[in-house]
């Protein structure tokens, strides 16, 4: 797995037109190669194109991929030492290959989702307390 790739973003109009034409059963052709779009592929392309239209960098990683600590830290947007601390505290599952830690992409994504959920819950709690105190939130 290589680093993040920043590609020039096609025009918003080109992305919109392409997204509108995506539908299950349609055929995507590149020269002599073709691919029938399944509902899952359409959803994947829609999400990819939506992120690109917002100018976000995108990386596709198989859920079963085993990542090094450097790769995992990069995907989370944290330092490698911080990630290692999360691993050692048991917050993200990992296993060792020899002396090296490996993290499955799906475990990393599960941690990220749980972390975001906790953040939303904390924000909701703070908002509720601010409203109870009449702080205008």
Automatic annotation (TrEMBL):
Name of the protein in its database record: Helix-turn-helix domain-containing protein
Classification via Pfam families: HTH_17
Domain Helix-turn-helix: 67-114
């Amino acid at each position: 797995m290589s680093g993040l790739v920043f590609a020039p973003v096609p025009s918003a109009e080109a992305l919109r037109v392409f997204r509108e034409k995506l539908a299950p059963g349609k055929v995507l052709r590149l020269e002599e190669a073709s691919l029938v779009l399944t509902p899952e592929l359409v959803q994947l392309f829609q999400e990819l194109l939506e992120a690109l239209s917002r100018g976000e960098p995108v990386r596709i990683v198989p859920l079963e991929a085993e990542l090094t600590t450097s790769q995992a830290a990069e995907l989370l947007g944290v330092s490698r030492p911080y990630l290692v601390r999360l691993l050692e505290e048991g917050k993200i599952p990992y296993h060792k290959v020899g002396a090296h830690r490996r993290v499955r992409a799906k475990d990393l994504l599960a941690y990220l989702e749980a972390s975001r959920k906790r953040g939303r819950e904390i924000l909701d709690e703070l908002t509720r307390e601010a409203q109870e105190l009449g702080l205008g939130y």
